[in-house]
Design goal:
Low-confidence stretches: 1-9, 22-26
Helix content: 40-55%
Number of domains: 1
Order of helices and strands: HHHEEHHHHHEHHHHHHHHEEEEHHHEEEE
Structural class: alpha+beta
GO molecular function: heme binding; iron ion binding; monooxygenase activity; oxidoreductase activity, acting on paired donors, with incorporation or reduction of molecular oxygen
GO biological process, one term: sterol metabolic process
Strand order of the largest sheet: 1-2-7-4
Mean pLDDT: 89
Distance between the termini: 49 Å
Shape: globular
CATH class: Mainly Alpha
Binding site for heme: 422
CATH architecture: Orthogonal Bundle
Radius of gyration: 23 Å
Largest sheet: 4 strands, mixed
Family: Belongs to the cytochrome P450 family.
Keywords: Heme, Iron, Membrane, Metal-binding, Monooxygenase, Oxidoreductase, Transmembrane, Transmembrane helix
Number of strands: 11
CATH superfamily: Cytochrome P450
CATH topology: Cytochrome p450
């Protein structure tokens, strides 16, 4: 099968090169384009950036390009002409311009669904985002802290307590999956939830696979998994509709089904509910789990930061009875812990770069970005800029004590920004704070691997999933 894929790829590449050679003389080059080269037809700079992601040098790859061409440059990725924009002003354009919606490839839409919020813009995007935010806003999240607390404690008792070694990343992914399954779909522990977890993993793998829909390929498996996940969610939706007395705030699907406009009509169609119920799982599954994994990774070698965090959480615990769950007020007192999370995201952003698509010609920085071109932003361009964050390689949570007064707007973009800032940011924050509260109070740890490296595929992943040696401070 690998041989067949290679043959198909070579044929497609050869055909594209021939077409390019036959047509390039007839094409007029748009005027005032950014500096840079589009490279070889189809291939462009794709292999270079993929290689950099694999060896965790993508920050240097972007930095070298910015140093050579400046904050606006052109190149080619995945067969499409692309403009790289860097800096706070560029981030502001990317996050606030209505002419630059996210670019979601058609093959990804086949996995996520055509009505997913990532693929929409304009009125449809505002309507669906508004519906999701009604469930994810702080006033609603206050209602879920108790349930998240219970999920975290159960997870740690089942998977951490009594063990001397654990592998962090797969455990964090399991924890975030269980939390999201309970609050978004109302799915408790069962064989159905285990099968759903497998399907979500297949869908995520398909998002970064070669989009060849042939038997036994990763992409075909992801499409099959997407179909099974949709059937499950459609069944859950039918159950929730039948439960007339069920609280609309019990889970996301019940909430979306209950929403009505001023005419009494349902705000979202059933297809929109299914597609956008999958998004919190797909997006949130990697975000919170990866952030917590890299916090644990850093704290293993930073005893001073760990001690300050532990002190913060012991002060909170002293005001609570044994076994009493955390509350929203408790989370609001975990300010240092959240600054540690933000500094972790600054140095190791979960999303290192993201594509937009130009809906029309755009002028920026004295250059023209043609309609239809991809536009790429990268978090490292501002996160690792010493003029914005002095000594950017140094881990310093105090940077976030008063960030807005010390850095330009749109400099820290760990969760994106503007109208499309991650709608699940506060939800992820609750998961991180609750989990770190119990971890730092009850455990200490050391890294098992001397080689403390990670790769990006495309989110960061520590070597071997971050195995650690555990020591127990107290019982849960």
């Amino acid at each position: 099968m690998d041989y067949l894929l290679k043959v198909v790829a070579l044929l497609v590449t050869a055909f594209a090169i021939v077409i390019h050679l036959l047509t390039r003389a007839k094409k007029s080059c748009p005027a005032n384009l950014p500096p840079g080269s589009l490279g070889l037809p189809v291939i462009g700079q794709t292999l270079g950036i993929l290689r950099a992601m694999h060896v965790n040098s993508v920050d240097h790859w972007f930095g070298d390009r910015i140093g050579r061409y400046g904050p606006v440059s052109k190149f080619s990725l995945f067969g499409k002409p692309t403009v790289l924009l860097a800096g706070p002003a560029a981030n502001k354009l990317m996050f606030f311009s209505s002419l630059l919606p996210p670019y979601v490839p058609l093959f990804s839409q086949r996995i996520l669904g055509e009505k997913n919020i990532l693929s929409l813009y304009g009125d449809d995007h505002r309507r669906i985002r508004g519906a999701l935010m009604e469930f994810l806003k702080p006033d609603m999240l206050k209602l879920y802290v108790n349930r998240i607390d219970a999920e975290v404690r159960h997870h740690l008792e089942e998977n951490w307590a009594g063990r001397t070694t654990v592998t962090v990343l797969p455990l964090m992914k399991r924890l975030t999956f269980n939390i999201i399954s309970a609050l978004v779909f109302g799915l408790e522990a069962s064989a159905v939830r285990d099968a759903f977890a497998h399907d979500v993993g297949c869908m995520l793998a398909g998002m970064i696979a070669i989009p060849v829909n042939l038997p036994f390929t990763t992409f075909r498996r992801s499409l099959k998994a997407s179909q099974r996940a949709r059937r499950l969610l459609e069944g859950i939706m039918r159950e929730k509709k039948a439960e007339q007395g069920d609280s609309p705030n019990k889970n996301l699907i019940s909430h979306l089904l209950s929403m009505r406009d001023e005419h009494g009509e349902q705000v979202l169609t059933h297809e929109e509910i299914v597609d956008n119920s999958l998004i919190p799982m797909i997006a949130g599954h990697d975000t919170a789990s990866t952030l917590m994994t890299f916090m644990i990774r850093h704290l293993a070698n930073d005893p001073a930061t760990l001690a300050t965090m532990a002190q913060e959480h012991e002060e909170i615990a002293r005001n609570k009875a044994d076994g009493e769950p955390l509350t929203w007020v408790d989370l609001s007192n975990m300010k240092f812990t959240w600054r540690v999370a933000q500094e972790t995201l600054r140095i190791v952003p979960v999303v290192v770069a993201s594509f937009k698509i130009a809906l029309d010609d755009i002028e920026f920085g004295g250059y023209r970005i043609p309609k239809g071109w991809q536009v790429l932003w990268t978090a490292s361009a501002t996160h690792m800029d010493p003029s914005i964050f002095p000594e950017p390689a140094k881990f310093d949570p105090s940077r976030f004590e008063n960030l807005s007064s010390t850095t330009p707007p749109c400099s820290f973009v760990g969760f994106g920004g503007g109208p499309r800032i991650c709608p699940g940011m506060e939800f992820a924050k609750v998961q991180v704070l609750v989990t770190m509260h119990y971890l730092v109070r009850h455990f200490t740890w050391k890294l098992s691997c001397k080689e403390n490296t990670f790769t990006r595929n495309p989110v960061p992943s520590p070597r071997h999933g971050l195995p650690i040696q555990l020591q127990h401070k107290s019982t849960l």
